Amino acid sequence: MSSDFESYEQDFAVLTADITGRIGKVPKLVGDEKKQMVANVEKQLEEARELLEQMELEVREIPPQSRGMYSSRMRSYKQEMGKLEADFKRSRIAYSDEVRNELLGDDGNSSENQLIKLREERAHLLDNTERLERSSRRLEAGYQIAVETEQIGQEMLENLSHDREKIQRARERLRETDANLGKSSRILTGMLRR
User: Fold this and answer.
1) Could you read off the pLDDT of 138-186 as tens digits, one per residue?
2) What gap in Å lies between CA 103 and CA 34, rounded to an integer?
């Protein structure tokens, strides 16, 4: 069991090292080369996420007394994954100085103000992207809560329906019992008069 975990762990280490190297190359590329590299990194990030899921499944299978060590390693890997995704996001919109100068048509003598403006715009774009992602996560969480609430409501309605049926059956039994008691009372009264 732990050997599977360690195998996934090794695969994860090799994959994240490769991803890190590719992320460093992304800002230096333009056009189709950059698109291809971005697509490759996205694919590798997806593979890394799947490896994390496999590792997490393996950790769940480990006996509780041994699970603590593996759980802390999983937290570390998840943090590393988050950092890789953030670095990748930044690298997609970043450009090396040469590429930036080529795209902007500068001869390398760009003013300090232009560089500051570019950095501010980049930071602004990153902030907006993070805000959108946070909003998306909140919406998804809200949707999840709504679905769970709907399921709970459905279960409550089913329980109430079952309770209603039980109450109706009990009421019928009471009517029958009342009718039987009435008959018994009339019979006893008739017997006492004789």
Assistant:
1) 888 788 888 888 888 888 989 998 999 999 999 999 999 988 888 888 8
2) 14
CA pair distance 51, 5, nearest whole angstrom: 10
Banded pLDDT at 92 (limits 50, 70, 90):
confident
Backbone phi and psi for residue 108, each to the nearest 5 degrees, phi listed first: 100, -5
Residue 125 has φ and ψ, to the nearest 5°, of: -65, -40
0.85 exceeded by pTM: no
Helix H or strand E segment including 139: helix 112-193
What tens digit of pLDDT does each residue of 107-123 get? Answer: 555 567 777 788 888 88
SS3 29: coil
What is Dmax (Cα atoms) for the chain?
A: 128
Q: Which letter, b or e, does each residue of 72-98 get, where b requires 16 or more Cβ atoms within 10 Å of its Cβ?
A: eebeebeebbeebbebbebbbebbeee
Q: What is the pLDDT of residue 165?
A: 92
Separation between Cα atoms, residue 47 and residue 183, nearest integer Å:
79
Tokens read off for 171: 């009421």
Pair of tokens at residue 181: 């008691």
* CA distance to 4, 29, 79, 129, per residue, from 122 (Å): 42, 17, 24, 11
Specify the DSSP class assigned to residue 105.
T
